[in-house]
């Protein structure tokens, strides 16, 4: 009998300990995570009892809470909905939150640990609790210029101050109106949500940093050229055989340059010439010599293969492992299974513009509580030293040459030296191209880096070109910064 009692006692003790551990984990370890989860209905409904803090651009609200006469007390309003929707995201009753409404929810709702005393004060005084205000780094003039430049095209634009990492513009199209999702009528919210979710143009994706990413095409040549120069075995003048067509090893597939000719007129072509004219074959040969490990290591130094929080979380840009020789050669001009976001390619340009240094990209200038106490303020933060100043200077000159007398010439601005690189990426037989541009200006003292992606060939299938569509968009954004 004693033996049976011991067994029962042991089982009860184990169950008690398990219950104690699990409840402790839920209440202590994962409490903040559960509270922040967009599916937490209790937290969501409680957040409507407080006046949610505004999201501001240059002091003007792009999201704010308006008193209404219903059980939720406040309605979220987005005055320039589509323009800023990829940044603000949306706040709904029952379909979760996205964008900054989600990633900064604890501050906006007034429930962060940093606002504990504000919460206590509201209880003691009987005043209505109020969330913190979030001021963004975005510049409204540059944001509007990027929106206008992209026009009706499907794609994205991001502009960043290379010296600080402050994001000046973040535009993604097609966009949507978050006001449709903020209403307090559940059926209307669900109808709008389902319609947008099933839209073939995927308006919910913030294409500057997330969603299904695109091959970066020839903009990735900057990464490969950086790997070559950083190795110490190559210079801008290192040359490679210059055929008009090259059969890949272990394959029957043949590659060519964009114009199906040679890279310039000589029997060899240098790295500098291949960047200026955006030639594929010399870079395939360079990639074969470098090998995928060296390219991946350099890509990782620029931020590939990790998610970057701005504090919107980015989808990892990818330079994959275990590439064979033909895949490595294709990857060297941004094809194969290489994928990148505009944010990532802006970070590549940032390193080149900033003597090799990448600053942490950031959208948030400050977070201020309802009593005007600063909870957080922006401080420039180092992301990584991706390349040496010497490599950055060499790549800058190659990009300047590309704008002055090469494939990126449509990014030129009168009286300003612009550094730029175009890219036209293939997506499969018969599929529209993806069109890219990344660059910065002024080249000798950069104020802004920009990255542009135009998807679906800009509506022109395989006839659309990066020099015809993406580079002019980049130029207009650069001009907006320089003329402000």
What does this structure look like?
The chain has a domain at 217-364 and 383-482: DD-peptidase/beta-lactamase superfamily (Beta-lactamase, 3-Layer(aba) Sandwich). Helix content is 38%, strand content 17%. The protein has 18 helices and 17 strands. The chain has a six-stranded mixed beta sheet with strand order 3-2-1-4-12-13, with helices on one face. Strands 6-5-17-16-15 form a five-stranded antiparallel beta sheet. Strand 5 and strand 6 (167-173) form a beta hairpin. It is globular. GO terms for molecular function: penicillin binding; peptidoglycan L,D-transpeptidase activity. InterPro entries: Beta-lactam/transpept, Beta-lactam/transpept-like, PBP_dimer_sf, PBPA_dimer, PCN-bd_Tpept. Residues 52-134 form the Penicillin binding protein A dimerisation domain.
Short description:
This is Cell elongation-specific peptidoglycan D,D-transpeptidase. By secondary structure, the protein is α+β, with helices and mostly antiparallel strands.
Descriptive tags:
484 residues, alpha+beta, Beta-lactamase, 6-stranded mixed beta sheet, 5-stranded antiparallel beta sheet, 38% helix
Task: Chart the SSEs and their pairings.
Elements: H1 2-29, H2 31-36, H3 41-47, E1 55-57, E2 60-67, E3 74-77, H4 81-88, H5 99-103, H6 105-108, H7 116-125, E4 133-136, H8 140-150, E5 155-160, E6 167-173, H9 179-182, H10 186-197, H11 221-231, E7 239-241, E8 245-247, E9 254-256, E10 268-270, H12 271-277, H13 281-290, H14 292-302, H15 325-331, H16 342-353, E11 357-359, E12 364-368, E13 374-377, E14 382-385, H17 389-405, E15 419-425, E16 434-441, E17 448-454, H18 470-482
Parallel strand pairs: 1-4
Antiparallel strand pairs: 1-2, 2-3, 4-12, 5-6, 5-17, 7-10, 8-9, 11-14, 12-13, 15-16, 16-17
Helix pairs in contact: 8-18, 11-13, 11-14, 12-17, 13-15
């Amino acid at each position: 009998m004693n033996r049976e009692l011991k067994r029962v006692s042991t089982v009860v003790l184990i169950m008690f300990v398990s219950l104690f551990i699990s409840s402790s984990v839920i209440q202590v370890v994962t409490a903040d995570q559960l509270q922040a989860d967009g599916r937490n209905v209790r937290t969501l409904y409680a957040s409507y009892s407080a006046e949610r803090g505004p999201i501001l651009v240059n002091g003007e609200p792009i999201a704010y809470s308006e008193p209404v006469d219903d059980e939720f007390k406040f309605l979220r309003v987005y005055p320039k909905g589509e323009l800023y929707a990829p940044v603000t995201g949306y706040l709904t009753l029952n379909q979760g939150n996205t964008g900054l409404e989600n990633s900064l929810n604890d501050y906006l709702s007034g429930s962060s640990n940093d606002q504990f005393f504000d919460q206590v004060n509201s209880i003691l005084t009987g005043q209505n609790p109020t969330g913190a205000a979030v001021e963004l780094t975005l510049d409204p003039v540059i944001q509007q210029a990027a929106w206008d430049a992209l026009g009706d095209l499907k794609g994205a634009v991001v502009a960043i101050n290379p010296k600080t990492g402050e994001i000046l513009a973040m535009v993604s199209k097609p966009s949507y109106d978050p006001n449709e999702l903020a209403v307090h009528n559940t059926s209307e919210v669900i109808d709008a949500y389902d319609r947008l979710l099933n839209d073939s143009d995927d308006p919910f994706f913030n294409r500057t940093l997330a969603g299904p990413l695109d091959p970066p095409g020839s903009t990735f040549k900057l990464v490969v050229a950086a790997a070559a120069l950083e190795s110490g075995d190559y210079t801008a003048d290192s040359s490679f055989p210059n055929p008009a067509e090259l059969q890949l090893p272990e394959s029957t597939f043949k590659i060519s340059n964009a114009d199906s000719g040679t890279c310039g007129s000589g029997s060899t072509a240098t790295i500098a010439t291949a960047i200026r004219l955006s030639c594929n074959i010399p870079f395939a040969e360079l990639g074969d010599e470098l090998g995928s490990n060296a390219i991946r290591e350099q890509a990782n130094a620029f931020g590939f293969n990790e998610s970057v929080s701005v504090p919107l979380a980015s989808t990892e840009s990818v330079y994959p492992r275990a590439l064979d020789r033909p895949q490595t050669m294709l990857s060297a001009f941004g094809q194969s299974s290489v994928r990148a976001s505009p944010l990532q390619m802006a970070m590549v340009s940032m390193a080149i513009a900033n003597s090799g240094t990448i600053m942490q990209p950031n959208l948030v200038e400050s977070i201020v509580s309802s009593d005007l106490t600063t909870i957080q303020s922006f401080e420039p933060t180092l992301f990584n030293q991706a390349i040496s100043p010497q490599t950055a200077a060499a790549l800058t000159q190659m990009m300047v040459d590309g704008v002055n007398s090469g494939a990126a010439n449509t990014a030129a601005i009168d009286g300003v030296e612009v550094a730029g690189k175009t890219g036209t990426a293939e997506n499969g037989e018969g599929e529209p191209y993806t069109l890219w541009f990344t660059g910065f200006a002024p080249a000798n003292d950069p104020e802004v880096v920009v990255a542009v992606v135009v998807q679906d060939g800009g509506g022109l299938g395989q006839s659309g070109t990066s020099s015809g569509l993406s580079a002019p968009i980049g130029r207009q954004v650069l001009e907006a910064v320089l003329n402000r």
